[in-house]
Amino acid sequence: MTATAPTPRVALVTGTSSGIGEAVVRHFCEQGHQVLAVDFNPAGQEVAERAGAAFFQADLTDGEACKAAVQEALKRFGHLDILVNNAGIQHVSPIEDFPEDQWRRIIDLMLTAPFLLTQAAWPSMREGGWGRIVNVASVHAQVASPGKAAYISAKHGMIGLTKTAALEGGSQGITANAICPAYVKTPLVDNQIADQAKLHGMEEQEVIEQVMLKNAAIKRLIDPSEVASLVGYLASEAAGAVTGASWNIDLGWTAQ
Ligand code: NAD
């Protein structure tokens, strides 16, 4: 059997200046896709160019910026086939002390922006009769942990958005899936280790072993490239029958 080259597609990926988003952009560029990488951090420009992608700077907590990002993809490439909602932030504090502005920022970025980007991308996918929406959720879309009320609420909401998009897209050639990683070795996790150490009164190494990997059957952090491979599959031709699903890549966390 000979492997066939993937059909080149146009993809918009958010949250691309580091971590999972950077790995997804690299993976898509290697597949021959045309990619618009979207991030509020100007460092994303160099990261995108190194991979062979175009870059658009946008703070996705702003609804108009979400719409502008999709418009930029359409202007540059003529249409849009793949949307990966990946940008995310974290704030760790108990509900009692959780700052309202952090709650709103997290919901805006991690739930409202994926909705607005999906809405803006939809007509082009519908007209092309082909679309792939991949939402980077989290194991925290399936289970909760203390101190992460906004993040966990946003990620649980993202599963609802994914399922609804899957039902609406079924007759239009558009699939929507969520992926649910456990801890991935990225700057987002590096920053959390110190916060969690404070929250639990632990040393940082203890946080990795006793908090982050406590429920994992495989005792290691995940590499961003492993997550990018799963995103790549869900965005491919081969995944045409797969929709409305939540894909765990969680080291066995939720197997118990
Ligand atoms: P990361 O910090 O490396 O990447 C997040 C990206 O989002 C960065 O490029 C950042 O600049 C961008 N971003 C932040 N605020 C933005 C804004 N307002 N507008 C536009 N871009 C913005 O983190 P990561 O771990 O690669 O996280 C990527 C996604 O994966 C997030 O949604 C996160 O919740 C999810 N996730 C991460 C892990 C993990 O363990 N790292 C586990 C499960 C899910």
Describe the overall structure.
The protein has about 260 residues and is α/β, with parallel strands linked by helices. The chain has one domain: Rossmann fold (3-Layer(aba) Sandwich), CATH 3.40.50. About 45% of the residues lie in helices and about 15% in strands. It contains eight helices and seven strands; from the N terminus they run βαβαβαβαβαβαααβ. A seven-stranded parallel β-sheet has the order 3-2-1-4-5-6-7, with helices on both faces. Helix 6 packs across helix 7. Nicotinamide-adenine-dinucleotide binds near residues 59, 86 and 181. It comes from Halomonas nitroreducens.
Features:
binds nicotinamide-adenine-dinucleotide, Rossmann fold, 256 residues, 8 helices, alpha/beta, seven-stranded parallel β-sheet, globular
List how many beta strands DSSP finds.
7
* CATH-derived topology: Rossmann fold
- β-strand amount: 5-15%
Overall mean pLDDT score?
Answer: 96
Which homologous superfamily in CATH is the superfamily?
NAD(P)-binding Rossmann-like Domain
CATH class: Alpha Beta
Uncertain residue ranges: none
Structural class: alpha/beta
Let me know the largest β-sheet.
7 strands, parallel
Task: Give Rg in angstroms.
Answer: 18 Å
Largest beta sheet: what is the strand line-up? 3-2-1-4-5-6-7
Number of helices: 8
Distance between the termini: 38 Å
Number of domains: 1
Helix and strand pattern: EHEHEHEHEHEHHHE
Helix/strand layout:
Layout: E1 10-14, H1 19-30, E2 34-39, H2 44-51, E3 54-57, H3 63-77, E4 82-85, H4 100-128, E5 131-136, H5 149-169, E6 174-181, H6 187-200, H7 204-212, H8 224-234, E7 246-249
Parallel strand pairs: 1-2, 1-4, 2-3, 4-5, 5-6, 6-7
Enzyme class: oxidoreductase
Pfam families: adh_short_C2 (PF13561)
Family: Belongs to the short-chain dehydrogenases/reductases (SDR) family.
